[in-house]
Design brief:
- This protein is an alpha/beta fold.
- The protein has a single domain (about 5-90, about 110-145, about 165-230), classed as NAD(P)-binding Rossmann-like Domain (Rossmann fold, 3-Layer(aba) Sandwich), CATH 3.40.50.720.
- About 40% of the residues lie in helices and about 20% in strands.
- It contains 6 helices and 7 strands.
- The protein has helices at about 15-30, 40-50, 70-75, 105-130, 150-170, 205-215, and strands at about 5-10, 30-35, 60, 85-90, 135-140, 175-185, 225-230.
- A 7-stranded parallel beta sheet has the order 3-2-1-4-5-6-7, sandwiched between helices.
- Helix 1 (about 15-30) runs parallel beside helix 2, helix 1 packs across helix 6 and helix 4 packs parallel to helix 5.
- The longest helix is centred in the middle third of the chain and has 28 residues, at about 105-130.
- The termini are far apart.
- The structure holds NADP nicotinamide-adenine-dinucleotide phosphate.
- NADP nicotinamide-adenine-dinucleotide phosphate binds near residues 17, 38, 139 and 189.
Length: about 240
């Protein structure tokens, strides 16, 4: 199976940034898609939108990525080509100082932002290594590059993801699988719902999609190890 026809797995592909990444692949590439999230209605809608955008094969999987057994039970639907690209995008953001964060809230940030990418990569890596070439993209955050006084649990979980991603890159250096970390700044998505914000102040999620599509077009001789993407005018200050 040629890399350009392989399946792109996108976690959190039902809405927000993940949905835009899926639409970017649907519009501009010949890849098949597999979208993973918990809400089947949103997944069905994203699937339809990807087909309307030109993708010929789109499958969805309902999976709570914070439940290791559900990740273990995930199967690639018959008829989909092998996985060539994995985008670990699903994540949640807790806006809370550490002093007020409960142990349960702290653990849940780690489960979705750090453990889930590890577990899913672990599950899909043997298949990726059998492909002509492979790419793992981990959507981290600028919150992984410095401490965050308003969101310490989130920041620490994204620091963990960044360490995982950097290590995976080195571990796979002599294989056909490249690993890219995107340290993302504030980006327009469904996670901003309810916040009064001018979309022009935030990163356009279709730019994230375009960036990831462009990574798949680089020759296999190169890898973008780490990319930091920020709103051009800088971060919007918290309200
Ligand atoms: N937006 C920003 O400003 C920003 C900035 C820096 C980094 N990021 C990172 O970018 C990524 C996407 O963020 P976003 O703003 O697009 O988030 P979003 O709008 O809240 O979307 C999150 C996606 O992840 C899925 N998801 C959440 N929890 C899940 C779980 N337990 N199991 C499976 N799927 C789950 C959601 O679907 P279900 O709820 O149906 O499961 C949804 O598809 C995250 O990793 C985030 O940390 C975002």
């Amino acid at each position: 199976m040629a890399f350009h026809n392989s399946t792109v797995v996108i976690t959190g592909g039902s809405r927000g940034i993940g949905r835009q990444i899926a639409l970017g692949f649907a519009r501009d590439t010949a890849h098949a898609l597999m979208l993973i999230a918990r809400d089947s209605t949103a997944l069905d809608k994203a699937r339809k939108d990807c087909i309307d955008a030109g993708c010929k094969k789109v499958e969805t999987a309902v999976c709570d990525l914070t439940v290791p057994e559900e990740i273990q039970d995930l199967e690639l639907p018959a008829g989909l080509p092998g996985v060539g690209v994995l985008v670990n995008n699903a994540g949640t953001f807790l806006l809370k100082p550490l002093a007020g964060t409960t142990p349960d809230e702290f653990r849940r940030q780690w489960e979705i932002n750090a453990m889930a990418p590890f577990l899913l990569t672990r599950k899909l890596l043997p298949g990726l290594l059998q492909q002509e070439r492979g790419l793992v993209v981990n959507i981290s955050s600028v919150g992984a590059l410095s401490g965050q006084p308003q969101s310490g649990a989130y920041s620490s979980s994204k620091h963990a993801l960044l360490g995982f991603s950097r290590s995976l890159r080195l571990e796979l250096r002599n294989t056909s699988v490249a690993v890219t970390t995107i340290n993302l700044g504030q980006t327009m998505s469904t996670s901003w719902e309810g916040v009064e914000v001018d979309p022009d102040e935030l990163i356009d999620p279709s730019d994230v999609a375009g960036l990831i599509v462009s990574l798949t077009r680089m020759s296999s001789r190169s890898v973008a190890e780490e990319i930091t993407l920020r709103p051009r005018k800088g971060d919007r200050k918290p309200d």
